[in-house]
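Example 3.
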Amino acid sequence: MRLPIKWGDCVIIALVLALALAIGVPFYLRPSDHLTCEILQNGAVVRTIPLTDAVEETITIEGETITNVIEITPGGVRFAESDCPDQVCVRSGLLTRAGQSAVCLPNRVIVRLTGAEAPAVDAVVQ
Amino acid sequence: MKRLVFIALALTFLAGCGTTEYSTDFFAMNTVMRITGRGTSAQETVVAAEQAVNALDRLLSRTREESEIWALNHAGGAWVEASDETLAVLTTALTVAEQTDGAYDPTVAPLTDLWQIGTEDAHVPTQAAIDDALQTVDYHNVEVDGSRVRLLNGAQLDLGGVAKGWAGGNVLDPSSLEGGLLELGGNISCFGRKQGGSTVWTVGVADPDTSSELMATLKLENACAVTTGDYERYFEENGVRYHHVFDPETGYPADTGLRSVTVVMDYADGGLADGYSTALFVMGLDEGLDFCAEHGLAAAFIADDKTVYVTDALRDAFTLTGEEAGFALAD
Amino acid sequence: MKTRDIALCGLLVTVALVLSIIEKMFPLQAVVPIPGIKLGLANVVTVFALARLDTRRAVAIVLCRVTLASVFMGSITGFAFALCGGLLALAVMRLLLPLTGRSLSLLGVSVAGAAAHNIGQICAAVGVLGTFDVVGYLPLLLLSAIPMGLVTGLTVRETLQHLDKISKN
């Protein structure tokens, strides 16, 4: 198949390449993007909150008998309060990295952090 | 040339239109679970696996009145018909009990009920109460005859020690997907290719002191990993930690100088891995290492002093990352 | 004359629609996770319309195709992306087409059109999703615009040459 490409065509191709680089370089040299906090209740995502530099949110999740209070700050996410009997969720502490999660079993609530970068591990055995 | 280009384009389009990834998060067997699958019809397959786990929960749960285990535990010693799945899980449990000489014992239910670890009523029982509970604890009390089961001497069955592991290796057929990952209450099973194409999955091992941190990573290929530790369910009284892994002989939480034991086996052997990890924790380091050597098991033992003992079979797949936290490999 | 025009436009909309549906099967969303993002295969029809019909009809065809595609594939965000992408591509190609001759051919025009299509989609995405983060995908899309544009340009060129041959006979 003939490909009689003209110099004008090449100019356009070069321009598109240049544009791609011009946008790509500053974009990929930016410092890493933020983490996102996902809150699931009964297996379904009910809130998604990006951990931007100024985020300061307190989210109350009410189950049938138990209420969880989840605190979201730029530094991380945690179960601040819970009226569940075992307090495992609160004891999980502050989640700060992508892939970490904390669970309130009695209330069926999962709080986890996800990030755009590939996680260091696919899962954690515990 | 034109035809080749067209065919190439067509193939690229068609090849792409199959593979999707689907995950589900749900609660079963008293814990949180997540199943992820990649392949054509990933969603259907993963949802079916979730339903299979729920079905298994309904069969094996000790607390649900409709379960087969409830029926068995309340049959007063009579023969009870059991389904294939229940028999499979029970056989796995008894196999491990047999091989480990009772270090793992599926009849410790009375101890679990007595100590109430993991609930508000957790307490240290009197010696008399413990002796009483120990009366029926003996896996020999479980008799299997074909598809019938009965419990002698008032023994009570609890298959929770192998159920999650067994589910991990049996609810999702590896040939039905390109790749899959099951995270069932801390038990991990994986097969096939993960996103990116590699068949090697990286699984972190939790630091017993700070379970949100990792102290090592495992490289798994069509395998499962199970950890039994003293940090998952416990209560503390007078500075002593009482955890949920009982020594079937003493009736007290196993006190063997170990923080956790992690066992790695083939994907389909999740149930065995689950049972072995409990048994090895109860056996303690020396007996445990001997057992692993005898059976060629891949395992890692974390001792109180943060020394990590890795069996030969696991050496290649195990990478210590928690040096800063004080963990060190034994020689 | 008028009936034939309508029929021809209808035919072109159909072709563009089919191409839209085919390119939906290509899992671009796996690499660029923006719902409704497309490579721009349907631009083939836009180029053809600009070359053989007039601007007004080309715009009409794009509008029809984008609307029908959204109805068939049920994606409202997809509508916004396809509209911005399709119209920007049309505008750019409309400007460049008269310049074809010794220094520029349909190939360059198509590449520019594909690039404009992607820029249009990303702009719409920034508007719809409310974040500039998606601009990060533009470099990759622009790189894909080069082979995409070459393919569409070649396709139109061959089609036009065949058509010319037929009408000559």
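The helical segments of chain A are 7-28, 88-91. The interface with chain B takes residues 1, 40, 42-43, 85-86, 92-93, 95, 100, 102-103, 105, 108, 110, 118, 120-126 of chain A (CB under 8 Å).
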